[in-house]
């Protein structure tokens, strides 16, 4: 089972979270993480042009999307990537894959929730199955999900421009959760033909 982690990172903090998500995926037996970075050089006249990256995502069982929050939403390079998937939207190429999202901003709010909702709507347009966090804020013994978002990971950049260690732990947990749920879905898909005709 392969889980793609596709992200755009402007300062390196989103990349750090993406690496943590990938590390979490790998904690589940039989799951492989496929980190894929959206590069500014992949965009020509506002259009995303890296078909090879899109094909790698086609081959994944699930996809975790990551973008920093810029002006209350996903960064422009990530939006260009989203727009480039329109043909796959039409053919339902990603339908049934598990999906999740993460973002980071400079303040505790900063409208990061809108970025997660943008990623959620994007995944739902593709017919994907959204996976949120199941760690209530303030109730985790390890301090994960310190900002309390449940629709995905919201992280806050530290004063020195780094990723808070608890946000990194939360990213690992998100990757683990996506892989775990994706594995269950894969088992069900493999066994579904046996259910045909049964009441």
TrEMBL record:
Alphabetized UniProt keyword annotations: Flavoprotein, FMN
GO molecular function terms attached to this record: electron transfer activity; FMN binding; NAD(P)H dehydrogenase (quinone) activity
PROSITE patterns, alphabetized: FLAVODOXIN, FLAVODOXIN_LIKE
Origin superkingdom: Bacteria
InterPro entries per UniProt: Flavodoxin/NO_synth (IPR008254), Flavodoxin_CS (IPR001226), Flavoprotein-like_sf (IPR029039), FMN_Rdtase-like_dom (IPR005025)
Pfam families: FMN_red
Sequence ranges assigned to domain Flavodoxin-like in this UniProt record: 3-178
Gene Ontology CC terms: membrane
Cofactor: FMN
PANTHER family xref list: FLAVODOXIN-RELATED PROTEIN WRBA-RELATED, FLAVOPROTEIN-LIKE PROTEIN YCP4-RELATED
Name this protein carries in UniProt: Multimeric flavodoxin WrbA
Origin species: Microbulbifer donghaiensis
High-level lineage: Bacteria, Pseudomonadati, Pseudomonadota, Gammaproteobacteria, Cellvibrionales
């Amino acid at each position: 089972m392969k889980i793609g982690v596709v992200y755009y990172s402007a300062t390196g903090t989103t990349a750090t979270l993406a690496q943590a998500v990938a590390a979490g995926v790998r904690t589940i037996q039989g799951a492989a993480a496929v980190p894929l970075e959206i590069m500014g050089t992949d965009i020509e006249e506002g259009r995303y042009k890296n078909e090879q990256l899109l094909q790698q995502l086609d081959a994944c069982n699930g996809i975790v999307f990551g973008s920093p929050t810029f002006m209350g939403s996903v960064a422009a390079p990530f939006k260009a990537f989203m727009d480039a998937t329109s043909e796959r939207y039409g053919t339902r190429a990603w339908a049934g894959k598990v999906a999740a999202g993460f973002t980071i901003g400079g303040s505790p709010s900063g409208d990061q929730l809108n970025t997660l909702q943008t990623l959620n709507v994007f995944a739902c347009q593709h017919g994907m199955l959204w996976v949120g966090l199941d760690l209530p804020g303030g109730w985790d013994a390890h301090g994960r999900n310190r900002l309390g978002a449940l629709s995905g990971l919201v992280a806050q950049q530290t004063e020195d421009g780094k990723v808070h260690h608890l946000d990194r732990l939360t990213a690992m947990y998100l990757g683990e959760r996506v892989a775990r749920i994706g594995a269950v879905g894969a088992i069900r898909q493999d066994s579904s033909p046996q259910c045909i005709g049964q009441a």
